[in-house]
Amino acid sequence: MSILEADMLDMSAVLMHAYDMGDMIKSSAEVADYLYWKTAVESSAEVKELQALFMKKKELFEECERFGHYHPSYHEAMAQVNEVQGRLEQIEAVRKFKEAEDRLDDLLFTISTTIAHAVSDTIKVPSNNPLPGGGSCGSGGSCAKCG
């Protein structure tokens, strides 16, 4: 067997394990919870109504935002967006969906980090957290990993 064939066999084994891991993730409690609450949010008439209202208020705010704080309706438009967003976040299905989404994101990040660090401790793993490590990494600060 040539080196190229051996490399292809190794890669196909890696891919097979990746597919197996994907299947395990799809059958996890985190994914089941996420899908349950996603369906609850998507099927809620109240959520749909508030999302449509939110989009209207957001468009109004974006129009005001073009002129900045000096637009006469800027603060009122921003308050309306925040009010509708607050109403959305008070709905149990929306809150539970966001919580489930965060737990699934944490699971995927942990798996990605484990795989990356199994290869090398210096591999960077992307995250949805804008301030990883509490705000020090990537924010111009100094931490143990960044130096």
Characterize the structure shown.
The protein has 147 residues and is an all-alpha fold. Helices cover 70% and strands 0% of the residues. It is built from 5 helices and no strands. The chain has helices at 3-26, 29-42, 45-65, 74-89, 92-119. α2 runs antiparallel to α5 (92-119) and α3 packs antiparallel against α4 (74-89). The protein is elongated, with a radius of gyration of 22 Å. The N and C termini lie far apart (45 Å). The relative contact order is 0.09. The model is unreliable at 138-147 (pLDDT under 50).
Cα(first) to Cα(last) distance is 45 Å
Quaternary class: single chain
The Cα radius of gyration reads 22 Å
Number of strands: 0
SSE string, helices as H and strands as E: HHHHH
**SS strand fraction:** under 5%
Low-confidence stretches: 138-147
Class from helix and strand fractions: mainly alpha
Q: Characterize the main sheet.
A: none
Number of helices: 5
Mean pLDDT comes to: 87
Give the fraction of residues assigned to helices. Answer: over 70%
Shape: elongated
Quick structural summary:
The chain is an all-alpha fold and about 150 residues long. It contains five helices and no strands.
Features:
single chain, 147 residues, mainly alpha, 5 helices, disordered C terminus
Secondary structure blueprint with pairings:
Blueprint: H1 3-26, H2 29-42, H3 45-65, H4 74-89, H5 92-119
Helix pairs in contact: 2-5, 3-4
